[in-house]
Amino acid sequence: MEENKVIIVDDHKMFRSGLRFLLSNIPNITVIGEASNGKEFLEMAENETIDIALMDINMPEMNGIEATRIAMEKYPDLKVIVLSMHGEEEYYDQMLEAGVKGFLLKNSDADELIAAIEAVLAGKSYFSQELLVNILDQKRLQKLRTDAVKLSSRELEVLKLICDGYSNAEIAEQLFISHRTVDRHRANLLSKTGCKNSTSLVMYAVKNKIVEIE
């Protein structure tokens, strides 16, 4: 079978080494180089034929977004898989526009890494299931922020924990805030949403798709 050449682009050497080790056990995959930022990657791409780039987002000198955009213009057959951390969802639309084919969390196991590589090599896209769930959660929160009722980020956190059945004391412990602060947030939630109690708050959250009932 045809050999597929891979380059790892990440500013953490230890992570690159671990990923190289995982890839060494995948048939027909050969790591031909590593780069610590987008600029180094583009320089290597001028001298090497690369099938897949495993691309970090936040890197010094040149980030993964810009590097991917430039690389895809020059090498349209290149397949780029993003190596992401939680909290970087804000960059996903930009990466998609740049031409990325896959998204993986950095803590993904070898099986998911193989699945992502096989998918993009077959001309498909791949999104980590954990990332998809997280993105959907973020979009639900964003939707609520655009509704008539404006809730702060902390109020949204408290509301979701209320829906999960946490008591005020447990919410305080989860969010590292005082019991009195939780009481204030709960009172604000009741006031802003027009709800009378925790049960109606849960119904409000379900109606506005902040949470889903299985």
Termini separation: 44 Å
- The CATH level-2 architecture of the largest domain is identified as 3-Layer(aba) Sandwich
Major beta-sheet overview? 6 strands, parallel
Task: Give, in spatial order, the strands making up the sheet with the most strands.
Answer: 2-1-3-4-5-6
What is the strand tally?
A: 6
Order of helices and strands: EHEHEHEHEHEHHHHH
Helix count from the secondary structure assignment: 10
Low-confidence stretches: none
User: CATH superfamily of the largest domain, please?
Assistant: Response regulator
Structural class: alpha/beta
Question: Remind me, CATH topology of the largest domain?
Answer: Rossmann fold
Mean pLDDT: 86
**What shape does the CA trace take?**
elongated
CATH classification, class level of the largest domain: Alpha Beta
Total tally of structural domains: 2
> What portion of residues is helical?
40-55%
What is the C-alpha radius of gyration, as a whole number of Å?
22 Å
β-strand percent reads: 5-15%
Description:
By secondary structure, the chain is an alpha/beta fold. The protein folds into two domains: 4-132, Response regulator (Rossmann fold), CATH 3.40.50; 147-207, Arc Repressor Mutant, subunit A, CATH 1.10.10.10. Helix content is 52%, strand content 14%. It is built from ten helices and six strands, in the order E-H-E-H-E-H-E-H-E-H-E-H-H-H-H-H. It has helices at residues 13-23, 38-45, 64-74, 92-98, 110-121, 129-146, 153-163, 168-175, 179-193, 198-207; strands at residues 4-9, 29-35, 52-56, 79-84, 102-105, 126-127. The protein has a six-stranded parallel β-sheet. Helix 5 (110-121) links the parallel strand 5 and strand 6 (126-127). The longest helix is centred in the middle third of the chain and has 18 residues, at 129-146. The N and C termini lie far apart (44 Å). The mean pLDDT is 86. The modification 4-aspartylphosphate is found at residue 56. GO terms for molecular function: DNA binding. Keywords: DNA-binding, Phosphoprotein. Residues 5-121 form the Response regulatory domain. Pfam families: GerE, Response_reg.
